[in-house]
Automatic annotation (TrEMBL):
<feature type="binding site">
    <location>
        <position position="101"/>
    </location>
    <ligand>
        <name>pyridoxal 5'-phosphate</name>
    </ligand>
</feature>
<feature type="binding site">
    <location>
        <position position="151"/>
    </location>
    <ligand>
        <name>pyridoxal 5'-phosphate</name>
    </ligand>
</feature>
<feature type="binding site">
    <location>
        <begin position="236"/>
        <end position="237"/>
    </location>
    <ligand>
        <name>pyridoxal 5'-phosphate</name>
    </ligand>
</feature>
<keyword id="KW-0718">Serine biosynthesis</keyword>
<dbReference type="InterPro" id="IPR015421">
    <property type="entry name" value="PyrdxlP-dep_Trfase_major"/>
</dbReference>
<feature type="binding site">
    <location>
        <position position="194"/>
    </location>
    <ligand>
        <name>pyridoxal 5'-phosphate</name>
    </ligand>
</feature>
<dbReference type="InterPro" id="IPR015424">
    <property type="entry name" value="PyrdxlP-dep_Trfase"/>
</dbReference>
<protein>
    <recommendedName>
        <fullName>Phosphoserine aminotransferase</fullName>
        <ecNumber>2.6.1.52</ecNumber>
    </recommendedName>
</protein>
<comment type="subunit">
    <text>Homodimer.</text>
</comment>
<dbReference type="InterPro" id="IPR015422">
    <property type="entry name" value="PyrdxlP-dep_Trfase_small"/>
</dbReference>
<feature type="modified residue" description="N6-(pyridoxal phosphate)lysine">
    <location>
        <position position="195"/>
    </location>
</feature>
<comment type="pathway">
    <text>Amino-acid biosynthesis; L-serine biosynthesis; L-serine from 3-phospho-D-glycerate: step 2/3.</text>
</comment>
<dbReference type="InterPro" id="IPR020578">
    <property type="entry name" value="Aminotrans_V_PyrdxlP_BS"/>
</dbReference>
<comment type="similarity">
    <text>Belongs to the class-V pyridoxal-phosphate-dependent aminotransferase family. SerC subfamily.</text>
</comment>
<dbReference type="GO" id="GO:0006564">
    <property type="term" value="P:L-serine biosynthetic process"/>
</dbReference>
<dbReference type="GO" id="GO:0005737">
    <property type="term" value="C:cytoplasm"/>
</dbReference>
<dbReference type="InterPro" id="IPR000192">
    <property type="entry name" value="Aminotrans_V_dom"/>
</dbReference>
Amino acid sequence: MDRVYNFSAGPSMLPLEVLEQAQSELTNYKGSGMSVMELSHRSKLFTEIITGAENLLRELMHIPDNYKVLFVQGGASQQFAAIPLNLKKNGQADYVNTGSWSKKAMKEAKKFIEVNEIASSEDGNFTYIPSVTADKVKSDADYVHITTNNTIEGTAFRNIPDTGDVPLVADMSSNILSEEIDVSKFGVIYAGAQKNIGPAGLTVVIVRDDLIGHAVEECPTMLDFKTHSESGSLYNTPPTFGVYVAKLVFEWIQAQGGLTAIQKRNEKKANMLYEYIAQSDFYHSPVKEDSRSIMNIPFVVPNHDVDATFIQKAQEEGLETLKGHRSVGGMRASIYNAMPVEGVEALIEFMKKFEKEHQ
Ligand SMILES: Cc1ncc(COP(=O)(O)O)c(C=O)c1O
């Protein structure tokens, strides 16, 4: 079967070139006679892979020297606990509630720290990003936590809040590497790999040096930033194959022209879809215009009874995983970096045809 256009929210599409390179090297990596999966994580070849991956990520995101890059496991969900365990000082933290993932982050943090919900869009069913101004931030908060892109609701921060001296922590799972960002505005950035980085199982944490080494005493060794920072992410066996595929993805992003080019293409894809939805009387975007994500685009039709038909017919045409999250309903197109413009064009063509048949 030919490859499909996969609109899944994650794990999601990887660039075909990356998959083909991994395939070509699968059984014999660089003449070693071994797969990357079989290489010792302390071997010379794997050392080249992990340092190469880190250097490429640093280059792509312009990560300043006073930040460490950690390759860990446990997903973004594990960072929900690691963040308070590493950053707790005064005992309270500010959270911005922008949807399901923010709520999960807050629920977990409450086990370790007092959580202040300083802004929320729950009153609008999370269809917008609430304003977060410096005066809302508690001066003795240990950190402010935001979810930069809300995978389920399809919203994203278009401006990064200024939190003054209080470190800003971001769950960037669904928009890391999708556009240029200024890393120096953040204390910690974390992301599960399975959208724009590589296979599930790898988690990337970017953390400013001064926030390392202050974990609470009872913090498990594996959740302490210091453990991974001091060992170059080699305290125990890292997700080696995931790091290898991530390196291939970083090389692919570089070959596309880096984040400036990637951002331009992502904006083009998102605009194409939003513009089509805007002129249609049939489809509707539930998200406020100034809060729209360029990665995850939910849309609804007037009669929910046709949702299942839409999803099934789309699938028959090679357009996969368009079902909206159960908490939002309707449809959702996740168009991460690896989704080509042609995939979005094919989706719009299908939507036009479906609109004609069901209006
Ligand atoms: C914004 C966001 N945060 C956190 C998570 C959870 O990530 P993980 O499955 O890596 O724990 C996801 C997963 O889709 C997500 O989209």
